[in-house]
Hints:
Blueprint: E1 43-50, H1 54-65, E2 71-78, H2 79-90, E3 98-101, H3 108-112, H4 120-124, H5 127-130, H6 135-140, E4 150-151, E5 156-163, H7 164-169, H8 178-190, E6 194-197, H9 204-218, H10 221-227, H11 237-252, H12 268-274, E7 278-284, H13 287-294, H14 296-301, E8 303-306, E9 321-324, E10 328-331, H15 338-346, H16 351-359, H17 379-390, E11 395-397, H18 399-402, H19 405-420, H20 425-434
Helix pairs in contact: 9-11, 9-19, 11-20, 19-20
Amino acid sequence: MRSGIFTQGTRTARWTAAGAAMVMAGLLAGCGTNGGSGSDGGTITAYVYGDDAVKVQQAAVTKFNKTSKVKVKLVSVPGTDYVNKLRSAMGSPSAPDVFFNWGGGSIKPYVDAKQLVDLTSTVNSTPELKDGFLPSIMTAGGLDGKIYGVPMRGMQPVMLFYNKSLFAENKIEAPKTWEDLQNAITTFKAKGITPFALGGADKWPELMWMEYLLDRIGGPEVFQKIQNGDTSGWGDPAVLKAAQTVKELVDQGAFGKNFNSVDYGNGGAPTLLNKGKAAMHLMGSWEYSTQLGKAPEFAKKDLGWTAFPTVAGGVGDAADVVGNPTNYWSINARTKHKDAAIAFLKTMASQDYAKALVDNGDIPTTSNAASMLSTSPNPQFANDQYSLVQKAPSFTLSWDQALESQYATPLLTEISKLFAGKSTPEQFVAAMKAVK
């Protein structure tokens, strides 16, 4: 799942900006749950995405409330209702003081409406926050160089998963370069094995290819320009080159012939990998837990993982990653208990909280997490994933979450058309440049 940690391996909690058009009802008159500064010091309401991971946040709230005069009330909102309930609440007098989000485009409407506390100076002047998290993670959750959220769940980089048995049988190594990848495609196609599983029916898995290709070819600055609102960035030569590379892969048969009818949510693409019908799968790190749930023996013995390969001639750093950096807590600018809210957010950097995430099967984004990963359900995977993100100069947020819905919705449509051969790379670029 793409909401930040999610060991159950589904992705329903992934909030695309495409599914979350946020029409602000104007600035809040005040947070409805902050009133009452009586003997109990008042109450902070915190909205959180309701799933199995909530127990980690609930434990943190319970611990905080033991020593704080201002108490935190955690409101767990069912996943399918979260986006709409948050949107409605933020436009009403009963808005939460603190709320769970995905950073990027998911908070831009609130930032534009001046509804969030700018945490930049607070983070920079608070050692446990400034030094407590991986820099790429903290940066990824902000907008326009400012920090509006503190990391509160685990990391989810996109990784290249592969079937180790198929690679061993064909005497090839996991691809590190584009040449390696091309060799793997040729080898597996000759054996009647689809090189890459791809859930094209869901559209968003296709986006991961463009995200990494653009990063490797043009560097993260190209998409950063687009994310900052300059749609002329779609006209960068690196975007066209990335789209052309996608077309080449499709024409080569890298994804097979039927990928447009294969889904991810119902297990179609993961099954191709664990049944040996596909050799590789570009997917978020939740793929491990997905495979552990669907094919535990395969996950434990035959599931391999590596970084996305380098692309010859590209200017992007080979250590860059894309995906979901994590989830964040943001603070409502109208809260009556700003100091207490910040104090609560500081606890996210604590060793106890990071340990609780690890015990839940997640990879914390804290700077000290590496020392705790030996107790993870799969220490090797946990350490490899942490190392990948720790060393990343840039962690680009998934495009459909980084962009507002007016851009993300057509993006998913156009990426699907490109993969399906219903538009050319040039038409993809023109279509995205035209979106306003």
